[in-house]
Amino acid sequence: MGETAFVVKLQIKSPPARKALEQIIGAQQWLKIQGPDDARRPDLLIFELGSPPDDDFRQIQSLVDMGAADEVFLTSENLSQEVLLQAIRAGAKEFFSQPLNEEEVQQALAQFKKRKDEPRQRRPKSAGQVVYVIGSKGGIGSTTIAINLAVALAENGKGQSVALMDMNMPFGEVPLFLEMAPRYHWGEAVKNSNRLDESFLTNILVRHSSGVHVLPSPASVDSFDSRTPETLERLLGLMRRMFDILIIDGGQSLGSISLRLLDLSDVILLVSILSLPCLTNTQKVLNILHDLHHPPRERAKVIINRYLKNSDISLKHAKESLHQDVYWTIPNDYRTTMSAINQGKTLSQLAPRAPITKSLRDLANALFESSGHPEKGL
User: Fold this and answer.
1) 3-class state of residue 308 by DSSP
2) Which of 149, 165, 257 is nearest to 210 (CA)?
């Protein structure tokens, strides 16, 4: 075994899982499983969670805080959203469900090796900003806001390059709203991750007449595989370098992919309306963000869409319910919005002087200074 081999410590209770990992790791000449008498600090710790996993998570958090290993991978039979949230919060780089998928583990180990061989550089100060738009429930206009916010930023005369990424899976509607027929989607990046660079991305992006570069979502989950979260993280980093601002239409998903992108975003716009079900869901999303160690007041901004001053629920009531201020209100104009959607036009094309259009322009200006960076406190 050469001196360059990375040391892997296995804390695995399940015999089948341990055997599978030993076989996978043993086939890699650049990896070595740490023996019981080896006191070296491991490069990688692979830890199996018990049931319930609470004590294990506390132990993992202590190990991470102490720097007991460079990286931690977790595995468990339980793949619930709660466990996934705890894994992210604990600092785990990868999470494997059981029974183990050999290809998934091999790809995770390959990415680990890449990180060790080429240390990740700090994001340059000039990197673009990411705004993630997520709805508290379906049908409340989060896609309309994401699209028209991106257009407002591209048309504000400040020369900012803007991209719009559709993560509303698997029913992304951005091309429909903009009357576009793109040939490609970000699933192409997942399938061709080894080719992912600026040239490849330029070829799959489609430019709208407003100047916004659009990256649609796949129409089928067949485009997903074990590489998807890692590839999308790379894709996000690449788009940060290429564009001043990236708007993500996140739909209502809070799966593993969405959680990772939310974690990497600079601003989170949480869209709601003044109804009890929406405000209840909004509070749940804010709690999830808090669980991810990103206090809502610092990262997430609540946007009330379809706002009516004489609503049964007031803004004051919403604030008290959410324990957080409402950042912005967008006036209700259902007729204009639906007309724009049905014609495949932006609000600035169809009704440039309408109050709803002005509100979205003002939101773009409020979010970003002239430099293109989010306002202080976001």
Assistant:
1) coil
2) 149
Do both 58 and 180 map to the same domain? no
- Looking at the fold, whether 113 and 230 belong to one and the same domain comes out as no
Mean pLDDT of 278-307: 84
The H or E element that residue 316 is part of is helix 315-322
**H-state helical runs in 155-301:** 174-177, 187-191, 198-204, 228-242, 256-264, 276-291, 296-299
Compute the residue count for the chain: 378
Q: Give dist(CA 71, CA 318) in Å, integer.
A: 41
The boundaries of the domain holding residue 28 are 6-117
Region 333-354: mean pLDDT is: 94
98 domain-assigned: yes
**Is residue 71, in this structure, part of any structural domain at all?**
yes
When pLDDT is averaged across residues 201-216 and rounded to a whole number, the result is 86
- Range 50-59 contact pairs with CB under 8 angstroms and sequence separation of 24 or more: 50/13, 51/76, 51/77, 51/78, 53/78, 53/83, 53/86, 57/86, 57/87, 57/90
Total domains in the chain come to 2
Q: How far apart are CA 315 and CA 143, in angstroms?
A: 23
Is 93 in the same domain as 168?
no
> Burial code of 205-243, b = ≥16 C-beta within 10 A, e = fewer?
bbebebebbbbbbbeeeebbbbbbbbbbbbbbebbbebb
Helix and strand numbers (H, E) in the chain are 16, 13
Nearest to 120 by CA among 242, 197, 3, 234: 234
* Amino acid sitting at position 237: G
Residue 71 predicted with pLDDT over 70: yes
pTM above 0.90, yes or no: no
